[in-house]
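Hi team, as promised in this morning's meeting, here are the two structures we talked about. I've kept the exact order from the run log so nobody has to guess. The first one is mostly here for context; it's the second one we should focus on when we meet again. Sequence first, then the predicted structure tokens.
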Amino acid sequence: MELIPKYALPVHAIGIVKKGFWREARHLDILGFTRKSQPHFLHESAFLNCAMAVETWFKHHAKSERGICFADDTKARDKIKSNFRDFRGNSPFLFTGNSSSDGVLLTDFTDSVKFDHLVDMIYFGDSKESIFLQLADCCAFFIKRMMMGRADAKPFYNIIERQVAPQPLRLLFKPKLSRVPARAVAR
């Protein structure tokens, strides 16, 4: 993990609280949007929102540079590739900058996000065969534990903290429950 601060590598993280998500989204059942019909939705959402954050970072910090995405293989692979391809064309979403913490999606984007800097296609691989995917998994693990409020993650998170965006860490979805989330997804 020392590579992250040594080379000033940016780390983007978005979290989604799994617990309570589908209960909060039950009003979408009539549209066919259910846990059963969309089994990988949380994974897809975390990944795409992270990719949008990376694209936004490029727009503000490295306008003339390009990036390519590599990710750990997942069951959501085909859907993520399809969504990634859509964002390389015309973005299907317009973000207004509205944010809330009352059980809705949170975002800080101010316009439509089209992947102009993330080029080609997303490539999936086995993290067992890639040191950089292992590094990303390691960062995600400690970011997730920080989002969960786990004190044992702090010494490791401190290594990468200055490179992690956004600060403070934020959740894409947070239920209306008053309790601290038991599980979060970080990518």
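And here is the second protein, the one for discussion:
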Amino acid sequence: VVKWGRNGKFLACPRYPECKNAMPLNEEGQPVLTSEPTETAYACPKCGGVTIQKNGPFGPYIDCMNRESGACDFRAGVPIGIACPEEPETGQLVEKRTRRGTFYGCWNYPHCSYTSNTLELAKMPPARSLEERAAANQKLLERSLRGKAAFASRKAKAPTPAKAPAASRTAAAAKAPSTRTTAAAKTAATKATATKTAAKAPAKAPARKAS
């Protein structure tokens, strides 16, 4: 089925979450074949490590090679080759797509709030002053934290399906008598009762022969 993510439309399995297979779609709505991870020329802005370009259900993205060991958590979109005007030493602009359209933002988000709706240098917003950047970044971080907290709260309150574990179901099935076993037990009880009744009944006197 076709779904919409933060990077546009993508194909997903209708049996999600049991099946998490997905594939990105291009602008014409055709599936995009994924390629093997490749090393990029960009250094990780957090730890300086090598970055790897990968493909996922939402399209291509970049991971720091040190994510596998847990030493770094950097992940971002693929840079378009233009440094962020506000953080040119470590920031790179990446393409982002929403329902409202495409825009370009710094891959240091949410620590950098710079965005632009165009790649034309003459039309791109200029770098803001340090005070303006600090105030905007602080608001962005607060909004990001509120969003994460709200998501965690919804996830915690979401009802979980009441499904007994396999071990419990097996134990319950073992304890529950089957219909055949119950019928056999009833038959045995009936026979035992009949035997006791016959044993308690007085013996009949033998019939006299006619003289």
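Starting points for discussion:
Residues 130-157 form the longest helix (28 residues).
The two ends are 102 Å apart (CA to CA).
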